Structure formats: structure tokens, C-alpha cells
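User: Can you predict the 3D structure of GNAT family N-acetyltransferase? Sequence below.
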Amino acid sequence: MVVDRLSCDEWHAVAGRELLGRGDASRRPDGRLFVSIDAWQGAVFDQLAAAMLADLPAPVHTVVDEADQDELAAWQRCGFTVARRESGYLVPTDPQRTGLGTVRPPAGVTVLPAGAAQEVPLTELVHAVRAEVEAAAGWHTMPAEILPSLTGYPVVDPARYAVARQGEAYLGLLRLGGPPGRNQPRIGLLAVRADQHRRGIARALLAQVLGEQHRGGRDSVWAEVDQANPAAVALFEGIGARRAATTLELVRG
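Assistant: Sure. Here are the predicted C-alpha cells for GNAT family N-acetyltransferase:
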């Protein structure tokens, strides 16, 4: 068996004309390099991984389903360790189930529906939120990926964001998207400025967005929550979200 690198991001393990396994690499919008391997045999997996890791710059990341102990063990054999644990939740939209039907924004705060925010202050809010997260837990702990522009500023699409505003100040946001392969819309980011925590702004954003989805005929949305963030876990589980999967992000430095 030999491992051939077909391109900058694809490797094949072959024996004669038989394809035994393949590996792929991709760089996420946040700059992190992720790899994946599709191989049935442990020896093929190990040889593919060794070739890929020799070719790629560190650090290298991958994700596995926590329930797949065989794949987890395979990556651990290659020196990968658990960097974060992220749970996927099915979040109900019916206000009778979430308890958000009577939730209103704090006094003086208005929740703008998706598409109503102005691009410049919204972009400034995303930039400010990112800086606060970087200074605390680190942006790598966030499930959301926000595309950077050539200037280093995040690129945002107001059509995907609901925003909490007080006067002219933007205080918090909820980004809703629909990635390929998933029927439910996905909460990609829910964040409130650090000096505005504990005012109920996050719950007000959820009440607005989930209510809109319910009126549109959707029973649930999808959300990913870092298990190291107890406040986020409590927020989603407190509105009836059900944990449906747990993903481990592994890293090899």
C-alpha cells in the first residue's frame, strides 16, 4: 500500500488499482486547519494520517462523534487530544414549550428582526463581540465561523442577524443560518456585549427568532453549545432544548 498526495488537500491510500482510503484537509474561515480520513482498516487510517500530518503545518484539528469510540481511538493513536466538547441541540420553537411567549426585551431595548439591522453598526458589534471572546475564553471556543475580509474585519449579512438595540447602540445578536444537509435552521451565534449580560437580552433574542420560526411552520432549530460554557447550556436546556449529539474537536500541535 502507498499513500499518494493528489492535491494540496487530498490524499489516497492505494494498493495496485484498489482505493483503500482517502484523506482530506480544509482550512476553516477562522483559519484553523481540519482533516478527515475515510478508511475501513486501522492500518490504512494510521498510514494516511502519518502521511497527512507529515505534509501539513501544525496545529491540525479534526472532529468526531463522541459515540464513535473507534474513530476517536484512531485519532488518539496519532497524537490528537480533546480540545473542546460541543453538544448539538434540537431547540423547540413553540412558545408553549420554550416558555418564551411572554418574554419581552428589557426596558428601552428593541429586538430588530433579521434584515432590519444596519450593516455598519452590526459589523462593529460582531467585531466587538469577537474581541471580547478572544480576550476571555478565546474565539476557538465558539461554534460560529465568521468570514474575515481582507481588512481583517468580519463580513456579515444583516439578513441572517436579529439584533438587540438600545437607542443607536447595538447590544446583542443572534445569527440564524441553514447549512447544507440540515433541515432545521441553525443558530450559528448568540452573543451579548459583556457589559450587557444578565439583563435578559439573550432570552429576548431567542424569543423573537424562535417565535418567527414557529409562525413560519418550523417545529425546531439546531444549535451547538460548548459544554464548557455552563451559562449557555443552562439557557438552552432551560427552554426545553434536547441534546441530540455530542461532537469532540481534537487537536494535534
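DSSP finds six helices and twelve strands in the chain. The first strand starts at residue 2 and ends at 7.
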